[in-house]
Amino acid sequence: MKSLVLLLCLAQLWGCHSAPQGQVLHYRQLNCDDPETEEAALAAVDYINQNLPSGYKHTLNQIDKVTVWPRRPFGEVFEMEIDTLETTCHALDPTPVANCSVRQLTEHAVEGDCDFRLLKLNGQFSVVYAKCDSSPDSAEDVRKVCQDCPLLAPLNDTRAVHAADAALAAFNAQNNGSIFQLEEISRVQLVPLPPSTYVEFTMSAPDCVAKEATEEATCNPLAQKQYGFCKATLTEKLNREEVAVTCTVFQSQPVAPQPQPEGAEAAGLSLDVLPPLSCGEAASPQASPPFRLEHPLVRSLHPAHYDLRHIFMGVASMESASGEAGHLRKTRAVGAAAGPAVPLCPGRIRHFKV
């Protein structure tokens, strides 16, 4: 009996490292700075920004890895890892990301780390799998470039909430009687000297004005959503507080459902032939819904920034693993061993390393 169990274990282990004759899957290994690779990476970044319900837009910083697999009956799948950096443009800001400034190290930069699979079909890229994480730079690294620069603070800090409320009240008082409501607090930094709170937040316009509403809660959102983005500093003085606030009101945007992963199924393809990320890993049976905020102050697991982890948690459009996918799991290592080992990645750093 023990011999039989041992034999079964050896057979399973061999299945992850061998391939039946004639089943070797050939692939292309591109340079991370190849124009075709960069085109795929930019399509991935566009997908991130199109699906961001909140936080800040991201821009491409570095391509870490890329492998191009053939797809039956046609097309190719680009499996890649990319690094992104947070910009100063909010997700609601219509400014193209190419025109957005990258948040600098002195401002406590945030980096994204993403795994993508993109289908290239008829020269067009579509995302079939997305998994991201993001994290701020370490406090030690910020201190190396700026000893006195304030660090990111929790987004639900009571001082941040108070500063946002005070800034929004000041903006509404100067805005010809209109009422804007707080949507979310996006960024907070606490400055020790002089004692002050820097906060960035978004607001939305309801369908009423101040003179028509006795309570802010009686206002309903507009059919054409209108958002604004504000930067404010609340400074504490001896017996009073001073608020400085600047806001940008964006053009009205129609309320639309959140974009879903385009996927290969939309192109009439089955994804059961794509090798999973590791041996024995099952494919996701359906797409995961994007993360949504239920309240302006509900935050992600990391309290100081909007974590991409909660938007792209392995979002995919692929069928469950089939027998054919099992064969390809076995052949992936064989295919990799067949090609020459050329150090083509990671690619160049476009901005700076976090």
Characterise the protein shown here.
The chain is α+β, with helices and mostly antiparallel strands and 354 residues long. It is built from 5 helices and 11 strands; from the N terminus they run ααββββααβββββββα. The chain has 2 domains: 12-141 and 257-338, Nuclear Transport Factor 2, Chain: A (Roll); 150-254, Nuclear Transport Factor 2, Chain: A, CATH 3.10.450. The chain has helices at 2-15, 35-51, 139-145, 158-173, 323-338, and strands at residues 56-70, 76-90, 110-121, 124-136, 181-191, 196-204, 224-225, 227-236, 241-249, 253-254, 313-316. The strands form 3 sheets. It has a 5-stranded antiparallel sheet with strand order 1-2-3-4-11. Strands 5-6-8-9 form a 4-stranded antiparallel sheet, covered by helices on one side. β3 and β4 form a beta hairpin. The longest helix has 17 residues, at 35-51. The model is unreliable at 16-22, 263-302 and 318-338 (pLDDT under 50). Residues 27-133, 144-255 form the Cystatin fetuin-A-type domain. Keywords: Disulfide bond, Glycoprotein, Mineral balance, Phosphoprotein, Repeat, Secreted, Signal. InterPro entries: Cystatin_dom (IPR000010), Cystatin_Fetuin_A (IPR025760), Cystatin_sf (IPR046350), Kininogen_Fetuin_HRG (IPR050735), Prot_inh_fetuin_CS (IPR001363). One of its GO terms (cellular component) is blood microparticle.
